[in-house]
UniProtKB/TrEMBL annotation:
Name of protein: Uncharacterized protein
Keyword annotations: Iron, Metal-binding
Biological process according to GO: sterol metabolic process
Family in the record: Belongs to the cytochrome P450 family.
Gene3D superfamilies (UniProt xref): Cytochrome P450
Source organism per UniProt: Gossypium raimondii
Length: 152
């Protein structure tokens, strides 16, 4: 048991090899072996730095007008529907839109829609039972991941 942040940092830095995260093979297949959280050391550090730039406060600050536009558009859509909304689904959609904006900038509508469609398929399959039975969520996600991720 550790009693201080310094002790925890010492253990995690000097004994990092003891804390290597592991994931089921089905999840590694789904995301791909080069995903950020499957790696440690120098490669992980380089990938993390690439991702961090897209999410840095200065980068996000420049995107505030665009993020506000996404938020207002979502609010208008909810008000116009006149129905009860599923906040979990709507926040996932909002987070996806902001993430895409932050990482890729402004994308052509058709390209963004195809990316979102493929992401939703992979998202559903990620936590499903790992079977290759055609039509299953896992099988569809693997197809998108390996064969059908063509966004052109």
């Amino acid at each position: 048991m550790l009693a201080s942040p310094e002790a925890a940092r010492f253990v995690l830095v000097t004994h990092a090899h003891l804390f290597k995260p592991t994931y089921p093979k089905s999840k590694e297949m789904m995301i791909g072996p080069w995903a950020l959280f499957f790696h440690q050391g120098e490669y992980h550090t380089r990938l993390r730095k690439l991702v961090q730039y897209s999410l840095a406060p200065d980068t996000i600050r420049k995107l505030i007008p665009d993020i506000e536009h996404i938020a207002l558009s979502a609010l208008d859509s909810w008000a116009a529907s006149g129905q009860v909304i599923n906040t979990f689904y709507e926040m996932k959609k909002f987070s996806f839109d902001v993430g895409i904006l932050s990482i890729f900038g402004h994308l052509d509508g058709g390209y963004k829609e195809k990316l979102e469609e493929n992401y939703r398929i992979v998202d559903k399959g990620y936590n499903s039972f790992p079977t290759k039975i055609p039509g299953s969520a896992h099988h569809k996600a693997l197809q998108v991941r390996t064969c059908h991720f063509s966004l052109s």
